[in-house]
Specification:
Two copies of one chain form a homodimer.
Chain A (H helix, E strand, L loop, with lengths): L7 E4 L1 H5 L9 H14 L3 E7 L11 H7 L7 E6 L2 H9 L4 E7 L2 H8 L3 H17 L3 E7 L12 H14 L3 E6 L6 H11 L8 E5 L6 H10 L4 E4 L19 H10 L8 H15 L6 H4 L6
Helix pairs in contact in A: 2-3, 2-11, 6-7, 7-8, 8-9, 10-11
Chain lengths: 300, 300
């Protein structure tokens, strides 16, 4: 069995994780979380989201958080951008890397961002073009690649079509999200084998939620297809506020534990990560969902 | 990728699950749990343990539980036996199938059952011989096959040696237990490839605890080696009272969800299983650890 010798982990806890928590985390603590994750060894971190503070109050003041980070060289600090307004905010705070998102089904797109896939992709194309003129790098997300909470089955062809477009628009990476966590390993292999035919393997990331406990098995399947960019969330924080029943990204801790066991390099120090997981769990007043961290209560 | 077309699931919740719970479940409810699991479609169920009620009070009266089960034809109802005294009790309640257990390290064996592996294997040989004279079927367990809480690394050769002996003594199945849940997928593949060389694949089961969140990925790896007998526990109940930090078997629900997704037949009805998981979780006054069940709170 051939597996990658190293992977790039994209830590999404400070954005995808926190945006779904009932407890608001202060600006100072959001900055501290990001700094600690960088210290753990993550070279790509989602730092916040430039969306309406009315809609997602947890992500208010993401510019201020961003401006307080001591950016390390060669690291990606990613800001999520939903529309033109978000892009303007990203430009004004001199963000170097942004992320844009679309969904693999019209039903989810309409529910989540109130427009069809086509309308959303046209907007994304404009945003990516403008961002690249400002020398920003752009990461692309596709939601619901393995199942949709409204429509059920998702067409692989549709995911491939969107991945190809995002890449063509200029995204340096396309992250495939199993937003509601319903995928299983052979489905993952089938999807990735298809997407690999339309964009380079080096540009494909997986982003799995653990709603049905499947995410680590799915990541092991993804590794077998050669994928080596993986999104994960410290402490297993996350979910999607607009996807009924969805809860929790794959935790960075359980993922790093597996990758260590597979002798796949991540650059992340697991002990520091566990300590960081307890740090954010305490601030949120909830236990980590990461089993590795729960089993290391002594490091609390 | 070649996977088995069907698997046999061995539901260990009523024994390995309940033995570790702080809440005592009544005899009537233990019987009801077993009946419901049989109704779900499990054809092999661990029903109890013939050990000292002082030591494991949760398993007191296992004979009475056993005698109240309406046994279905061709189903295995397994009673754990620790020693000669346990065997005598198994004989007196006319158990048809028993299970015996050893550990892959002396350190664990000494801590768990206060004797070395050699002493324990001599006792097992005698028990299996006597059981077979009474026409009982005997299942064998090996603990700590992927790591030991006291000694750390476990020798694959030792696991192979013990598996070969259990099979030679007359065990119809050898269940390989990652008691403390530290294994990762390639380690699983390496171990199983080795064990397959000494006993038939059809007689090898895997028994993984989810202490570090690895068990479903490990099972997906095991399936890729052709293994098609898997132990799991309703609601993710379990752990090992003698293994520090160990907590929870792989939940039957998350496992069946994955197997359904892989189009691997189990004979188990997932909806009934989820309902049974809520039933036992309510009795124990704790939430299920099975993510599939938590995501199906509406079935509560």
């Amino acid at each position: 069995m051939e597996l990658p010798s190293q992977v790039k982990l994209v830590e999404v806890g400070p954005r995808d994780g926190l945006q779904n928590q009932p407890v608001m985390v202060s600006i100072a603590h959001r900055v501290e979380l990001i700094e600690r994750l960088a210290q753990c060894g993550f070279s790509a971190i989602e730092t916040g989201s430039l969306v309406s503070a009315q809609r997602i109050p947890q992500m208010a003041n993401s510019e201020i958080v961003y401006q307080h980070i001591h950016q390390r060289p060669n690291a990606e600090y990613i800001m999520l951008v939903a529309n033109q307004q978000g892009l303007a905010r990203a430009i004004s705070c001199q963000a170097k890397t942004i992320a844009v998102f679309c969904a693999a089904t019209d039903a989810f797109s309409l529910n989540n961002i109130h427009c069809s896939i086509d309308v959303s992709m046209a907007s994304i194309q404009t945003i990516v073009g403008q961002a690249k003129e400002k020398n920003m790098a752009v990461r692309g997300y596709i939601s619901c690649v393995l199942g949709c909470p409204f429509q059920g089955v998702v067409q692989i062809d549709k995911v491939c079509e969107l991945a190809a477009k995002l890449y063509e628009y200029g995204c340096y990476e396309v992250s495939l999200g199993d937003t509601i966590g319903v995928g299983t390993p052979l489905q993952v292999i089938e999807l990735l084998s298809a997407v690999k035919k339309v964009i380079p393997t080096d540009t494909i990331a997986v982003h799995f939620h653990d709603t049905y406990g499947q995410s680590l098995a799915n990541i092991f399947a993804a590794l077998q297809t050669g994928i080596h960019i993986i999104d994960s969330s410290v402490s297993g924080l996350g979910g999607c506020p607009f996807a009924p029943g969805a809860s929790g990204n794959i935790s960075s801790e359980d993922l790093v534990f597996m990758l260590n066991g597979l002798s796949i390099k991540t650059g992340v120090n697991l002990d520091e990560l566990i300590a960081t997981s307890w740090f954010i769990a305490d601030l949120l007043d909830r236990p980590p969902t990461a089993k590795v961290t729960l089993a290391n209560a002594a490091k609390h």
